[in-house]
From TrEMBL:
Species of the source: Flavobacterium resistens
Alphabetical list of Pfam families matching this protein: DUF1801 (PF08818)
Xref: InterPro entries: YdhG-like (IPR014922)
Annotated ranges, domain YdhG-like: 17-108
Name used for this protein in its record: DUF1801 domain-containing protein
Source taxon at top rank: Bacteria
Length: 129
């Protein structure tokens, strides 16, 4: 695991650390080809320089985010923001359904919008896959 991400996880409360450790472990295992790093102060995984998945500690939960998640057509994911992102929030590790997570990660690999070039395109997203 990326040391910065390990440090991020270790800085969380006991229950939030369990959530973060489980998410990072599963994301690393499933998206083994992805680059992972702390980006805007949160763990994020990138495929070909494009952010696809990550998580962040919120006041009352840990938010799992998929940058192209609104395109996944998954009822468990809630729309987030004005682009194509979708999220799932957790308050304990037992809420994480590994089968759902793996399905979402597969979709994150295969369904992507070009966030890498969003500034260059002045906020216009183009679907890559």
């Amino acid at each position: 695991m990326n040391q910065e991400i390990k440090d991020y996880n270790n800085a969380q409360t006991s229950e939030d650390k369990k959530i973060c450790d489980l998410l990072s472990s599963e994301i690393n295992a499933f998206l083994h080809e992805a680059e992972s790093k702390i980006w805007h102060r949160h763990p994020v995984w990138f495929l070909d320089g494009n952010p696809v998945a990550g998580y962040s500690k919120l006041k009352d939960s840990v938010r799992l985010l998929f940058w192209s998640g609104q395109t996944f057509e998954e009822s468990e994911l809630q729309n987030e923001g004005s682009f194509k992102a979708a999220e799932k929030r957790y308050t304990n590790a037992e809420q994480i359904n590994i089968d759902d997570l793996k399905r979402w990660l597969e979709k994150a690999r295969n369904i992507q919008w070009d966030y890498k070039n969003i500034v260059k395109r002045k906020g216009v997203l183009i679907r890559l896959k």
